[in-house]
Amino acid sequence: MDTLEAHAAGCVGMAANMIGEHKRIIAVVDGRKRVLMYNPVILESSGRYETEEGCLSLEGERTAVRYKTIKVSYLDKDFRSRTKQYSGYTAQIIQHEIDHCNGIII
Ligand SMILES: [Zn+2]
What we know:
Elements: H1 2-6, E1 13-15, E2 25-30, E3 33-54, E4 61-75, E5 81-87, H2 88-101
Antiparallel strand pairs: 1-2, 2-3, 3-4, 4-5
The structure holds zinc ion.
């Protein structure tokens, strides 16, 4: 969360393994909030599309396949189990960061 804050000007999401923590933790911008997710899992996705994305870990942009709407389960910052539907840009950020957890950089 601190690293996301420090890069707020050009970064909308972080995965823990980007900063050397080999754990499945992501932090994402959701509108005006920042959301922390432990062990995020995408349960459902719909509305496949192709887009261009950039990443703090790369120069330039690459093509990525994303889904407009996703349902995600995760543990929140207090380790409470949550299942929530996201769409649009926030959904895209979550998919990008979960890819990081899986060793995929766009
Ligand atoms: Zn990235």
